[in-house]
Amino acid sequence: IVIRRGTASAAVAVMEQGTEHLKAGTSVFIFPEGTRTKDGNIHRYKDGAFRLAQENGVAIAPCVMLGTKGLFKGRRLNTRRLVIRVLDPIPAEEVKVTPARELAERVKEASVEALSKLKVESF
Length: 123
Known about the structure:
4 helices; globular; 4 strands
């Protein structure tokens, strides 16, 4: 899903495309901060990804990544070590009844903890 930043309709388009993919049975990978961060730390999560999961009745499988800094050089991928850790999923039933902001904070807290551990384990 390509995000056209700076347009008023961008968020609506992303939600519509996300819904199409989820209804087709495709998983959707979203950076809840809106992008990958430049400093490698986890910043404030936006609610959109969590609202998308709620509206489509799907579970959330949080992930953290380590090693993305310098991964991209323009449109090319540099060879380097990338570690991705998938955290415990949040079942669709739980996603449905939990406010999006609460889900965002919960996933962020778990992600910060997991990333800290991953940094110690991996590098």
